[in-house]
Amino acid sequence: MSALRYAALLGGLLGLAGCTGLQQDKDQALRAAQADFLAIRDDTYVLRSAPREVQRAAETLVHAQRFSGYWGGAEDAIHYAYLSRRYSEIALLQSRVERNQEQIARLERTIDHLQFALRESAPAFDEQRIDLAAEESNRGLLVTLDDVLFADGSFRLNRSANRILLRLARFLQFNPLRRVRVEGYADNRGDADDNLTLSRKRAQAVADMLIDLGVDPEQVERVGYGERFRVADNASGRGRARNRRVEIIFSDEQGAFSIPR
Amino acid sequence: MKAYVFPVCMAGLLVLAGCASDPAPAEQLRLSEQVIAQARAVGAVGEVGELAMAESKLAQARSALADGENRQARLLAEQAELDARVAEAKLLDIKSQEQLDSLNQHIRRLRSQAGGAR
C-alpha cells in the first residue's frame, strides 16, 4: 500500500471526512481487498502453506462487507478491508518463503553430492598428514599455489588448483583447530590499487573454494597484498605468472599464526 | 412523570455507554508490540517500510489510548500488528531469496571445479 493510500486511510479513520469521500474510499478499499483475496483464494501453494492467513483474509473481508452495509459503518469497513488485504499479502509471502525453503533443501542436497563427487575424484592420500608440497618458511608452514593459477588480470581460479585445494580442505576438516591464512598476490602490471583489489579477490576465490568444499569458514582467513612481495622478476611473462599467486600459511595446532607480513 | 423520566435517563445512559463501552485495548497493544519486536528480530529493519508504518501506528494507538479514545486505539493497534506481520514475512522472503542465490552460486563454483577434476 502506498504512503498516499495509507494517509488517505488514516485520514478516513481519524477525521470525519466528507461523507461522499468516505463512501468512495470505502468502495475502493473493498474492491482492493476483494481483488487481493481472489488472487490467493485458489492458489494451492498459498492454501497449503498459509491456511490460517487465508481464512483470516476471508473473515475480515466478510466483516468489511457487512459493515459496508450499515449506516455509519464505512470507517469499520475500511478498517477490515485493510486487515483483509494484509492477511492476503502475508499468506502470499509465507507461501513464497516456504517454496524457497524447499528449494534450499534441494540445493543443499545437490551440494552434498557435488562435494562427495569432487572428493571421490581426488587421489587417495594419508588424511592425517599434510600431504602437500608444504615448505617451512619464517612465516610458518607455507603452500604456494602459483602453477599458472590465475590468468593476467583475472581472479578466476584455474582448475589445476583442484587437487591441492581438495587435500587442503580434507586436512582442515580432519584438523579443526588448525587454520589457514590465504594470501593473494598480483604482478605489477596496471594500477597498484587495482592490483590490491585483484589480489584480495584471488585470496577470496581460494577461500571460497575451501569453504565450498566443506571447510568451516572460521578456519579460513584471507588477505590481499597487491603487487608487493614478488617472488620473481616482473620483467618477463613467466616471472609475472609466478607472481600472480596465492600463498597459504598454516597456523600452529592451536590455531595461532605467525605475525602477518 | 417519574415513570417517563426513568426510561429517558436510561436511554441517555445507554447512548453514553455506547460511546464509552469500547474497552481499553491493552491486550491488543501488547500483542502489536510483541509482533513488532519479533519482526525487528528477523533482521535488517531498513529494508521494509511496513515496520516503520507499524511503529508509527502503534505510537498513535498509544496516544489515542491516553486520550481515552479506545476504539481508535484498537483500530490503529490492529493495523500495526498486521503491518508488522507483513514486515516480518517480507524480511523472511528477502532472506530466503538471498540464501537461494548464495547456494546457487556455491553450486556453480562446485560444478565448474568438478568439471576440471575429472
Automatic annotation (TrEMBL), chain A:
SUPFAM superfamilies for the chain: OmpA-like (SSF103088)
Coiled-coil zones: 90-117
Domain OmpA-like: 137-254
Entry annotated with the keyword Coiled coil: yes
Keywords for the protein's UniProt record, in alphabetical order: Coiled coil, Membrane
Gene Ontology CC, one term: cell outer membrane
Major localization class: membrane
UniProt xrefs under Pfam families: DUF4398, OmpA
Domain of life: Bacteria
Name of protein: Outer membrane protein OmpA-like peptidoglycan-associated protein
Subcellular location: Cell outer membrane
Keyword Coiled coil tagged: yes
UniProtKB/TrEMBL annotation, chain B:
InterPro entries documented for this protein: DUF4398
GO MF terms held by the record: transferase activity
Keyword Signal applies: yes
Chain coiled-coil ranges: 51-97
Signal peptide: 1-26
Domain DUF4398 span(s) in chain numbering: 27-102
Keyword Coiled coil (UniProt): yes
Protein name: Cellobiose-specific phosphotransferase system component IIA
Keywords: Coiled coil, Signal, Transferase
Organism from which the protein derives: Azomonas macrocytogenes
Superkingdom assignment: Bacteria
One Pfam family from the record: DUF4398
